[in-house]
């Protein structure tokens, strides 16, 4: 996980980027 203080919805987007 990167930073939970940024945004909860952004975490899902980050996961997609990592997979891509």
List the helices and strands and how they pair.
Blueprint: H1 8-19
Quick summary:
The protein has 20 residues and is mostly helical. The protein has 1 helix and no strands.
Structure commentary:
There is one protein chain. The protein is mainly alpha-helical and 20 residues long. It has one helix spanning 8-19. The chain is built from one helix and no strands. The longest helix is centred in the last third of the chain and has 12 residues, at 8-19. The relative contact order is 0.22. The mean pLDDT is 72.
List keywords for this structure.
single chain, mainly alpha, 1 helix, 0% strand
- Shape from CA axes? elongated
Secondary structure: helix percent: 55-70%
Summarize the helix and strand pattern as letters.
H
Termini gap = 16 Å
Describe the largest sheet. Answer: none
Q: State the total count of DSSP E strands.
A: 0
- How many distinct helices? 1
Mean pLDDT: 72
**Secondary structural class:** mainly alpha
- Note poorly predicted spans: none
> β content, as a range?
under 5%
Compute the CA-based radius of gyration.
Answer: 8 Å
């Amino acid at each position: 996980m990167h930073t939970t203080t940024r945004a909860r919805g952004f975490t899902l987007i980050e996961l997609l980027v990592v997979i891509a």
